[in-house]
Design brief:
By secondary structure, this protein is α+β, with helices and mostly antiparallel strands. The protein contains five helices and eleven strands.
Length: 209
């Protein structure tokens, strides 16, 4: 029922994995984050948990296309930590995700290439523990109809909607949550199916899944 452009992938839970490279400990922590604020709160929590670490580097991707992103090397050489971690998020094709890799320095310098591999590997080890799932992007449309048309509307809802709410007063009202690519088609089907007795209007709700 959903089109490829209606969905994107994220993770279901927080996970953590640790690797050791030439004496340095790299602790990868990942979590779902539906907003930049949620990602930054998680990063701050990790910084507090590992307050004595040498570095707490991070990367996050937010939104359907992962276009809201940010990385930080936290004192490591520029480009050696945050960006490699972001590449791992892109490789796993996940968004609404934040990754933090904590380093406890072990006495041996790794060089930029070695650091990039270590930060990537720690983030990847944590992500491999995660369960991925598809988020369906939806648009909410409100439908008002007379009681005689309820069966027609319900048939269309079962055909098009991801979910819907219903309420009944003098007339019936439905709020349909539709995959983005199906919203216009659903509106046209409501108009045609009820000979224009019923129509749709955009419902002012926060949408996203």
């Amino acid at each position: 029922m959903t089109h490829q452009t209606d969905t994107y992938c994220t993770i279901t839970s927080r996970e953590r994995a640790e690797i050791v490279v030439k004496g340095s400990r790299f602790i990868g922590s990942v979590a779902p984050a539906r907003s930049k604020e949620e990602a930054l709160r998680y990063i701050e929590d990790i910084r507090k948990e590992f307050y004595d670490a040498t570095h707490n580097c991070f990367a996050y991707r937010i939104g359907a296309q992962g276009l809201n992103f940010r990385t930080a090397d936290d004192g490591e050489p520029s480009g050696s930590a945050g960006k490699p971690m972001l590449f791992v998020l892109q490789k796993f094709d996940v968004s609404d995700v934040v990754a933090v890799v904590t380093r406890y320095y072990g006495g041996t310098k790794l060089g930029v290439g070695g650091l990039a591999r270590a930060y990537s590997d720690a983030a990847e080890a944590a992500l491999q523990l995660c369960t991925k799932f598809d988020v369906v992007q939806t648009k909410a449309l409100r439908v008002f109809c007379v009681y005689e048309d309820i069966n027609i509307i319900k048939r269309l809802l079962s055909q098009y909607a991801v979910r819907y709410e219903e309420s009944y007063g003098d007339i019936a009202e439905f709020v349909a949550h539709l995959p983005l690519s199906k919203a216009d088609e659903f509106s046209a089907a409501v108009t045609e199916g009820t000979s224009a007795r019923a129509g749709t209007s955009e419902a002012l709700l926060e949408e996203g899944g």
